[in-house]
């Protein structure tokens, strides 16, 4: 039998939600003191040192066959390092307040960074080889497997620094950027939010308090919103320091690497052109009045007002069915939606439930939100959720499982080429959400249920597209202003309020405490400018789904082949089989029009007599 961790394959029972799974991490290692982990850590350090001794300064002399051997060895070493870091990060995510897990995470990160310094030379020297030399030796060997990896590595060549500088940046990261990220995570995990429930004061985690913003009772939503603003404002000095430090850290590195704009390094990592991202942002902002402004005005009317309080933005609709959906029912809904599209997709998804690859329980100290971690191709992905039984939680399950399926399919590309750029990584997750939405919509029994589903989907799409683009605008403004001087908390808050007012529109009323809501968003800290990938992915999927609904021949096969490609193809190559091109401005308008069409459909249904459903 496998020795299990404290967060392994047991299930926590919730009388309303059923048995909620907790992941079994023993497929990686069976504990922090695992004999396998200790052995692999020693062996991989020796292999890395030998790799440096064998190849450093010698790449120019290698034949094509010998260079392929070197790349394979590099890939194997990197995969073991990624496996160790995955285990440490997942263990830490399960309880960020556990000091032993935090210590293990930090020490693992430091050890891996130390080992990685022996490997750093390889990609740097590979980029120093002339194109003519590479072209010559590539014809001598079977380079086809690694062709896309070499292409992507060499894309960074114009921004590459000296070997000594690259090594310094790498080694100092654990006490620099990584430490500030850890401070952010642990500060957020330890924060407690006081609310009055049933005449008693209760302390909630960030996951629990943000869930109350979609509670059916208005006073509960308001109380939660005020509590969030109060606690965030009390911690604002810490979050401001983190934001300023990381923005300056990024500015220094961007300047040394000669990136034109703060977003340029992210665009390069996504292998998407600056003008394509600019076209996306412009198209979404241009549609603010027809999308978010229009919807929130309609929703305010459903609540009997011209103005929607900000804490009611994600409120359930009046008289909406607020039943809790058990875990087992949620699993059935999602897998059924997958199966209607592709048996293979459903079969891959089912493995996550059969093998305890998911942690779904809400716990104090656990990482908030949700994610899918790919780990390494030789193991399998893991999903983290905070499942609380709402429709949005079902959609989150569909979303993260979509990531998981994508990661499983792409694993055949191997460790170096299975990772997908962020802009394309959201494709499978958002597509899986759309499949589940359509399944739930088709299974709705009444017109009112259908209207509720459509309204909910519109809100999700606005959160994915409009809200994320507003987040992007916030980041862009913060980073550009940080180029001049350090920002005060008040300045950051002003930027936040400005972009929120612009994106949400005149029908949403914002109060002073909302000015601090920027500080809890992890993407700003973990992955600067990540956020536009959500809007990119949503609009891409909307266009893709339109092709699917046109009964495109062999769509499911083309779709799964696209996921299998992992990081080997760029967006133009991936979308070409579907007749789509993200560099064409009409592409974004086509994706955004789906949201507009749903708004038209909702308005039409309301006009035909279902409006009584929305009255308090």
Short précis:
This protein is mainly α and 616 residues long. It has helices at residues 35-55, 64-94, 99-116, 120-128, 131-138, 147-154, 163-172, 177-190, 206-211, 218-234, 236-257, 264-270, 274-286, 289-302, 327-341, 343-354, 391-410, 422-442, 447-464, 466-482, 489-504, 522-526, 532-549, 555-564, 571-575, 585-610, and strands spanning 11-14, 18-21, 193-197, 200-204, 308-309, 358-359, 371-373, 382-384, 508-509.
Structure description:
- With 616 residues, the chain is mainly alpha-helical.
- It folds into three domains: 25-175, Oligopeptidase f, N-terminal domain (Butyryl-CoA Dehydrogenase, subunit A, domain 3, Up-down Bundle), CATH 1.20.140; 194-320 and 465-526, Oligoendopeptidase f, C-terminal domain (Neurolysin, domain 3, Orthogonal Bundle); 327-443 and 536-592, Orthogonal Bundle (Neurolysin, domain 3), CATH 1.10.1370.40.
- The chain is built from 26 helices and nine strands.
- The strands form four sheets. The protein has a three-stranded mixed sheet, with helices on both faces.
- Strand 3 and strand 4 form a beta hairpin.
- The longest helix has 31 residues, at 64-94.
- Mean pLDDT is 91; it is low at 1-10.
């Amino acid at each position: 039998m496998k020795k299990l961790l404290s967060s392994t394959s047991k299930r926590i029972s919730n009388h309303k939600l059923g048995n909620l799974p907790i992941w079994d991490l023993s497929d990686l290692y069976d504990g922090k003191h695992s004999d396998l982990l200790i052995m692999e850590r020693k062996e991989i350090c020796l292999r890395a040192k030998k790799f440096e001794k064998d190849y450093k300064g010698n790449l120019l002399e290698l034949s094509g066959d010998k260079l392929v051997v070197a790349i394979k060895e590099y890939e194997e070493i990197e995969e073991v390092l990624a496996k160790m870091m995955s285990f440490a990060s997942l263990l830490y995510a399960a309880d960020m307040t556990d000091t032993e897990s935090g210590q293990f995470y930090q020490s693992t990160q430091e050890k891996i960074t130390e080992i990685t310094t022996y490997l750093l030379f390889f990609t740097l020297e590979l980029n120093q080889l002339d194109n003519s030399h590479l072209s010559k030796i590539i014809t001598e060997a079977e380079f086809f497997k690694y062709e896309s990896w070499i292409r992507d590595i060499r894309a960074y060549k114009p921004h590459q620094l000296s070997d000594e500088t690259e090594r310094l940046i790498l080694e100092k990261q654990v006490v620099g950027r990584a430490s500030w990220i850890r401070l952010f995570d642990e500060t957020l995990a330890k924060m407690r939010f006081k609310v009055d429930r049933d005449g008693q004061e209760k302390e909630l985690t960030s996951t629990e308090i943000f869930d109350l913003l979609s509670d059916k009772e208005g006073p509960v939503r308001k109380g939660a919103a005020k509590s969030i603003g109060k606690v965030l404002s009390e911690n604002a000095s810490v979050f401001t320091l983190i934001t300023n430090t990381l923005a300056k850290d990024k500015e220094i590195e961007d300047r040394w690497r000669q990136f034109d704009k703060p977003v340029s390094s992210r665009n390069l990592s996504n292998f998407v052109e600056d003008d394509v991202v600019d076209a996306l942002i412009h198209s979404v902002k241009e549609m603010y009045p027809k999308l978010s402004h229009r919807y929130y005005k309609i929703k305010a009317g459903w609540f009997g007002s011209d103005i929607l309080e900000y804490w009611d933005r994600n409120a359930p609709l009046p008289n909406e069915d607020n039943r809790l959906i058990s875990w087992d029912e949620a699993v059935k809904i999602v897998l059924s939606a997958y199966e209607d599209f592709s048996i293979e997709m459903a079969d891959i998804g089912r493995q996550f439930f059969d093998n305890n690859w998911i942690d779904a329980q809400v716990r104090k100290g656990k990482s908030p939100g949700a994610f899918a971690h790919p780990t390494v191709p030789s193991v399998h992905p893991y999903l983290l959720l905070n499942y609380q039984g709402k429709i949005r939680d079902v959609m989150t399950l569909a979303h993260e499982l979509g990531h998981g399926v994508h990661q499983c399919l792409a694993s055949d590309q191997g460790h170096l080429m299975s990772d997908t750029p962020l802009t394309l990584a959201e494709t499978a997750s958002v597509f899986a959400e759309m499949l589940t939405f359509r399944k739930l919509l088709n299974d709705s029994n009444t017109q009112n249920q259908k209207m509720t589903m459509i309204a909910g989907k519109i809100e999700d799409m606005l959160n994915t597209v409009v809200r994320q683009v507003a987040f992007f605008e916030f980041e862009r403004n913060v980073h550009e202003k940080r180029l001049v001087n350090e920002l005060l908390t008040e300045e950051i808050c002003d930027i936040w309020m400005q972009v929120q007012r612009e994106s949400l529109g005149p029908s949403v009323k914002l109060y002073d405490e909302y000015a601090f809501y920027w500080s809890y968003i992890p993407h700003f800290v973990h992955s600067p400018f990540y956020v536009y990938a959500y809007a990119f992915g949503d609009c891409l999927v909307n266009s893709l789904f339109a092709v699917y609904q046109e009964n495109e021949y062999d769509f499911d096969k083309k779709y799964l082949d696209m996921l299998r490609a992992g990081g080997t193809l760029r967006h133009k190559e991936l979308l070409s089989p579907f007749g789509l091109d993200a560099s064409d401005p009409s592409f974004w308008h086509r994706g955004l029009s789906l949201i507009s069409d749903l708004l038209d459909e909702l308005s039409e249904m309301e006009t035909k007599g279902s409006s009584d459903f929305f009255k308090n």
